[in-house]
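Task: encode each sequence below as structure tokens.

Item 1
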Amino acid sequence: MQIIDFHAHAFPKKVAAKAIEQLETHYNLNINNTGTLDNLLVRAEQANVYRMILHASATNANQVESVNNWVANVSSSKIIKFGTIHPEYPEIRRELDRLKELKIRGIKLHPDFQKFDLTDKKMYDLYEIIGDEFLVLFHVGDDVYPTEDNYSTPKKMAQVIKDFPELEVIAGHLGGYRMWDEAEKHIIGKDIYLDTSSVFQYISLERGSELIEAHGVEKILFGSDYPMKAPREEINNILNLDLSLEDKWRILTKNGLKLLSELKML
């Protein structure tokens, strides 16, 4: 089985420990992975993962080029690289063109860490520039802020895909991290991909199975959210879902291979 992990993060060695500490504080978690690229690849090997999509977000505009340079210099046959961009970055078009020259055709946007609202005008300007040129994985949902103040609610994600139907979107965390009732109301069933990252420590496998079936298994992608979780642990959660063996295979392998092949990212 050629397992595709669509949602994994790693950090340069010199900042990995600090990044893990910040993640633990933000999400109130104990993380048992180092967050380095070496550790990510070890965890991938332990889980027999075929390809991992590597994400790294610039938390401010000044980091955009350095983060993209680090991602571009990663060398591993297991890694498919996603770049970063920030709405405050002054040369968005130039940097997106540079990413394409570097053969990077995906972008990760994390509103809660990058401190922008999904429906902000500056973000709408960014979506216009991105168009259909990149596959965009959005972090959606967060329980740290009250719903009305949250940058990335499922309702806001639904508004974005309505206003920009040409965007190639993956909504992380089954459409809304720790906001799954709202995700069910606004995201589930829409014609976008969802990933399974950072879901099953909060909802039951039964509830997860219900949401997946309601959305459509063909639009679900496996994601471990390393370093939050190790891929092997999250693969076991998929295998224990109340779904057919064929549907589990679709989530772990078939859907990811199909999407990456269609976008010529393999």
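Item 2
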Amino acid sequence: MAEIVPVEAAPDGSADPRLADYTDLTDVELRRRREPAEGLFIAEGEKVVRRALAAGYAMRSMLLTPKWTDVMRDVIEETSAPVYQVAPDLAERVTGYHVHRGALAAMHRRPLPPPADLLRTAHRVAVFEDMVDHANLGAAFRNAAALGVDAVLLTPRCADPLYRRAVKVSMGAVLQVPWTRLESWPQDTRLLREAGFVTAALCLDEKSITVDALAARRDDRLALLFGTEGDGLTPGALAAADLRVSIPMDAGVDSLNVAATSAVVFYMTRAARLRD
């Protein structure tokens, strides 16, 4: 069982070095540089902390406000990592925002698997190209988990799924869905081809088939490619794809945002597999 260590504010206002993992959590650029380099990520809130542990991630430390100590008692009893208890105002001063969920944990990252390892047993995968918005990425991962996507592949410029906001928006789904990064894009579409996947690019193109037609094909191995908000998929990704697919729209709307698009397409292709 971990010892609960009360931590108080230093008289000179300096940050306690034991809380270094939690400092300046709202500084996106700082955290994007620090966290992968130091092999850590932050799980925020009781549910996300529990899902991270259930997914096999090891805890570095936990930071709790007093009201959350009893709520997390079972977690405290099962960890050997230090547990720091701080007043709400100190938590806000250290992190840079009001920690209303009262529970944060610094977790160890794990090495990412080679893409071929994920593709070996998968039948339906999502490929996110250059998605830099953490909220969209987190929502798309949540859709993937809810709708039975086997794995997620990220292109090199994609945002970090383990950044705090992405983890939070996904409700911990980024810790459940197997994922990794591709090293070279769109050249790595060859990995999908070699593994027997049909690649379907979601885009606005008059030559596209509808998502209903895609689902009716019932391809055994299907890779769904999603681009960025606004620009969509790059010309290289479109040229490498086997199919171009669109969602029919009404009322003069030309498209949905990428997270909503992923939900529709994941559901439609999942329904086809369930019928099989």
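Check on item 2: The two ends are 48 Å apart (CA to CA). The longest helix spans residues 258-275.
End of task.
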